[in-house]
Specification:
The chain has about 625 residues and is of the alpha+beta class. It contains 9 helices and 37 strands. The strands form 9 sheets. It has an 8-stranded mixed β-sheet, sandwiched between helices. The chain has a 4-stranded antiparallel β-sheet with strand order 3-4-5-6, with no helix packed on it. The chain has a 4-stranded antiparallel β-sheet with strand order 7-8-9-10, with no helix packed on it. The N terminus and C terminus are likely disordered.
């Protein structure tokens, strides 16, 4: 038996959940992953053949992003507390740290693609926009693209001849395919049909001669034929998600036998052989896996337990690695073959309550709510809505430590996948018939009414708790329907839509422009109508606001603007500031937030007493 390495992890409500390790392209026993290092996320290597784990990084506020190339060099993103930094490398077995590429701008990560022969492409996002660079590991970087538009590096073709850059899926530059010299090969539009890229096939047929990586100062290289690289794409059409491919000279070809009614993503199986793709579909709060064989035009289900697949990755030997969970089982890293992965052993965390699904009638279809109730107390219960972020996200049949903490304390918990959520198809995701924010609040109100009507929730003891967009909906609901909510916790929320736009990133500004139909200068009334600050003075119930000083997604300036409205209106509230960004990797911050939230909700929504049951063993006290 080989010893278990540190558990793979990312942060969720102050508790780690496993993430998949990244496997060496040449040696499936060698992996790199983000693990638990005394309450922080840090990067580790693991050699499965020897059972040896090694901690690579040790940074005061943690490290999250990592990769491994075909030479078994470990990559990680070395960022400051504001999220800016650069990629560094270290040999798998240890040694000095080195820059991944030299001459890169300082900024936020916007994609990393590792190719053969030490080729690497890096995307960096800075206040000046997106820049994409290419080079060889440890060498000087050459700039391929610089644009003020939002985007992310998607992938580098295996032969280094092409790069794919993703823009907004709904834009006229949803996918841009470039040569290393910056020449545009193709632009795929998503204005009529949302389109996004998922990566190049792992092995392209050889071309007549390779194109060397251009080096700074050497001048342009002759443009050669692009070869036959194959790019996996997804396109939304007629209410379904269609898998397809793009190739030079052929354009996008959708696979008529491979489409899905709800949100889906996919990855190529690595290695040579017939082209195959692992497909993961999120549907109604649960997940399914399929293998798509492109040569045989066949879609085959991959057997997994019922629940949620948080991530899945195909292996070169045909195995599938995946993170599985459901409402009462802690996430675990598993494989179809049964081979061991770091983090495979189950976390020993509490499990409370009973679960059920509730579907509430609504104008655009039934609203799905995942409900968890205490097993040891009588209904009705004090009720907490845990409101998910996004909005392009969803709650799922998955273990959530915050749910367990609340249910174990006597609360019923409702997680509503309001309109705008993923997992229910394109129509549901784009249904904003009652306005931005107000549509989602209306769904929370409908779910609240049914939960009280069914005797699950207790009138006068209903609260809201959300993070990011979930925090936004918490604030908006408490201001627009103050009579319905008895306490609220908003963590790192969007609180003032206009101020947030002024201080936000270009990518988020572009999303807001699409969502609201213009900028704050063009449609000020739309931003005001959707902004929680417009209704803050009407709040009647206890409110806790948790905000972060270094938050680039929900900037502190817009929280300050909201707080000013609260103070001017004499609205009582509590405030907690964090010295972190939107996504922190330090467990102490997350734990402090969850503890403060639970104490606050405990004061605003006192739980019901534990039901007294006669003991079958009176002597056991």
């Amino acid at each position: 038996m080989t010893p278990a390495p540190p558990k793979t992890a990312t942060r969720t409500y102050g508790v780690y959940r496993p993430v998949l390790p990244v496997v060496s392209p040449r040696n499936p026993d060698r992996m790199v992953y983000t693990g638990d290092a005394e309450g922080r996320c840090e990067i580790f290597t693991w050699d499965r053949s020897s059972g040896t784990a090694r901690q690579v990084t040790d940074r005061p506020h943690g490290t999250l992003l990592c990769a491994i190339d075909e030479d078994e060099t470990v990559w990680w993103f070395d960022e400051d507390r504001a999220g800016n930094g650069g990629w560094r490398t270290q040999a798998f077995d240890g040694g000095p740290d080195r820059p991944g590429l030299t001459g890169l701008p300082y900024g936020r990560p916007a994609g990393l693609a590792l190719g053969a022969g030490g080729r690497v492409a890096v995307g960096i996002r800075s206040p000046e926009g997106l820049s994409v660079h290419i080079g060889r590991r440890g060498g000087a970087a050459a700039t391929v693209l610089h644009t003020t538009a939002s985007g992310t590096l998607c992938d580098l073709a295996p032969d280094g001849r092409l790069l794919a850059v993703s823009g907004p899926a709904h834009s006229d530059r949803a996918v841009t395919v470039l040569r290393p010299d910056g020449t545009t090969v193709a632009v795929l539009s998503g204005t009529d049909e949302r389109t996004w890229a998922l990566g190049f096939a792992p092995a392209s047929p050889p071309a007549s001669e390779p194109i060397p990586v251009p080096l700074p100062g050497t001048g342009p290289r002759p443009a050669a034929a692009a070869g036959r690289a194959l790019l996996l794409v997804m396109r939304e059409r007629a209410g379904r998600y269609h898998l397809g491919t793009w190739a030079p000279g052929r354009g996008v070809e959708l696979l008529p036998w491979c489409s899905f009614d709800t949100e889906t993503t996919a990855r190529w199986y690595p290695g040579p052989g017939a082209p195959r793709v692992l497909v993961r579909q999120d549907r109604h709060g649960r997940s399914r896996l399929f293998t798509a064989d492109l040569d045989r035009s066949a879609l085959t289900p991959v057997p997994t337990p019922e629940g949620s697949i948080l991530d899945a990755s195909p292996a070169a030997d045909g195995d599938v690695h995946f993170i599985w969970t459901d409402a009462v089982n802690v996430p675990r890293a598993l494989t179809l073959s049964g081979a061991s992965l770091p983090g495979q052993s189950q976390w020993r965390l509490p499990r409370f309550g009973r679960r059920r699904d509730l579907w509430t009638a609504g104008p655009d279809g039934p609203v799905h709510t995942l409900v968890t109730t205490p097993a040891d107390r009588p209904a009705p219960y004090p009720l907490v809505f845990l409101v998910h972020g996004g909005p392009a996200d969803h709650d799922r049949d998955a273990y959530d430590p915050m749910v367990q903490a609340l249910v174990g304390s006597g609360y019923a918990v409702a997680r509503t996948n309001y309109r705008g959520s993923t997992g229910y198809g394109p129509h549901w995701r784009s249904a904003y018939s009652e306005g931005v924010g107000h549509t989602q609040v209306a769904d929370l109100v409908r779910a609240r009414a049914e939960l009280l009507e069914r005797g699950i929730g207790r009138a006068g003891a209903v609260g809201l708790c959300g993070t990011s967009w979930g925090g936004y909906l918490t604030l908006l609901a408490m201001g627009t329907r103050p009579e319905l909510w008895d306490a609220g916790v908003a963590v790192k929320p969007l609180a003032d839509c206009t101020t947030a736009f002024r201080h936000s990133t270009p990518a988020l500004q572009e999303l807001d422009t699409k969502l609201f139909g213009g900028t704050p200068d063009e449609v000020p009334e739309a931003y005001a109508h959707a902004s929680p600050s417009s209704y803050a003075a009407a709040i009647r119930s206890p409110l806790l606001v948790v905000a972060a000083r270094r938050d680039a997604k929900c900037p502190p300036e817009q929280v300050e603007a909201y707080l000013a409205v609260l103070r001017a209106g004499g609205v009582a509230h509590e405030l907690m500031w964090l010295d972190s960004g939107h996504d922190g990797y330090d467990g102490a911050d997350h734990l402090a937030v969850i503890q403060r939230s639970l104490r606050f909700l405990g004061r605003g929504l006192p739980p019901a007493p534990v039901r007294a049951e006669p003991s079958p063993h009176p002597e056991r006290r």
